[in-house]
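task queued by scheduler; priority normal; single chain, no ligands, no partner chains; default sampling; output format set to structure tokens
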Amino acid sequence: MALKNVIGIDHAVVVVRDLDKAAENWKRLGFTVSPRGTHSAKMGSGNNTIMLDPDYMELLGVLVETEHNIPTRAFLGKRGEGIERIAFTAVDSAAGAEEIRGRGYAALGPTDFERPVTMPDGTQSAAKFRIFQWPIEQAPAGLRIFACQHKTRETVWIPELMKHANGARRLRQVLVVSPEPAKDAAQLARMIDRDIKTEPDGAVAVPSGSDRADFVFLTKDQLGRRYPEVSLAGLPERGGAGLVLAASDLVAAEKAIGSSGVRSGGAVCVAPAAANGTLLAFVKA
């Protein structure tokens, strides 16, 4: 039976070494990027968000070394920049943590934190969250998952931040490479109590819930066959590899992305080397 307190993908976390440089890079790709936010001291991290509807992407950087961000620092040290984890939307994080404990997972949290937000009219507010995590070692294909309850959606989904020159509207797929896609997909499906489905090229999809983006597990070779004109240099053999984004207009997307874009597999793509270790594929909404 599907989890009651967890619905589909909320956002993708792209870990970067230098937040300011990463924010400028994603602006050059045609995204509207939020001003930097600094998380509560125990988190030791800061972020810039790229808001879509109903989901978003988060550029995350370590500002101060803390116990909480040890896994993130380990990820950067081992892999480098890229998709470190995926958040689900939590209806109630406390209840969600208890729900997965009841299924045998030693949930971490819930944990409360916040970051200051300057609103479009110049007033100061805060974005407040309550998260819980599946055990760190329970990471299908090395991809960590957690759930995020938004206490202040109005300070996160700010309309001015949701309009992008490249026409990006929402996440469609999270691409995860693995030498054993079926095995890792089955692990995630158990963790979130969802069914799996095999795609025509042999990749294995796990719907995340509601109308949100799917996870798609595939080998690196399969990913290369999907996007043959795109260099996959820098991607691991196992881990979060890319994001498929629905866009309003692929011609506009291609223009906004500029020289970093290439047409491949029916999509306008950005190679991982040009997007902080993350393959981006824009498809028609």
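post-processing summary
- The CA atoms of residues 3 and 193 lie 7 Å apart.
- The chain is about 20% helix and 40% strand.
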